[in-house]
Amino acid sequence: MDMMKLSNHLCFSIYSLSREINKMYRPFLDELNLTYTQYLVLLVLWERETSSIKSLGEALYLDSGTLTPLLKRMADRNLVNRKRAADDERKVYISLTEEGQELKEKATEIPVKLIEKSGLTKEELTTALSDFSGLLDKIQDANSK
């Protein structure tokens, strides 16, 4: 295998796949006036209701420099509340507003529509998700050494 050939680079294949998946999301998220990253933040908050910026960053693999302006824009749109911890003003907690919570109902169909649009069966999706989760775990282990 010629490792200097672009198509033989795993990182490029994953990067390209990610871009294509984001394209699939775009029309559904445009209807909700959300970016993909804002949608990911909402997914975490719909699960947890409240999260510190640090915890949110860990869940999404994003640093606070990326999250802070994103969360400010979401707060400006009245999707989330930002509140400093009383005991430590360096900690900021993010929670959903009523509007952010209501958006969940409108977003519920997005995963179903994406699966249909992708042409994947549920079994193929399950296998791919498992494979990519396993790959992520291996890469994280390699990076931590």
Strand percentage: 5-15%
The unreliable regions are none
Q: What number is the mean pLDDT?
A: 94
Largest sheet: 3 strands, antiparallel
Question: H/E order of the elements?
Answer: HHEHHEEHHH
Class per helix and strand makeup: mainly alpha
Number of helical stretches of at least 4 residues: 7
Shape: globular
CATH overall fold name of the largest domain: Arc Repressor Mutant, subunit A
Rg (C-alpha, Å): 18 Å
Q: Portion of residues in helices?
A: 55-70%
Tally the structural domains.
2
Tell me the span between the first and last alpha carbons: 27 Å
Strand order of the largest sheet: 1-3-2
Give a structural overview.
- This protein is mostly helical and 145 residues long.
- It folds into two domains: 90 residues, Orthogonal Bundle (Arc Repressor Mutant, subunit A); 37 residues.
- It is 68% helix and 9% strand.
- The protein contains seven helices and three strands; from the N terminus they run ααβααββααα.
- A three-stranded antiparallel beta sheet has the order 1-3-2.
- A hairpin with a 7-residue loop joins strand 2 and strand 3.
- Helix 1 packs across helix 6.
- The longest helix is centred in the last third of the chain and has 23 residues.
- The radius of gyration is 18 Å and the shape is globular.
- The two termini are 27 Å apart.
- The mean pLDDT is 94.
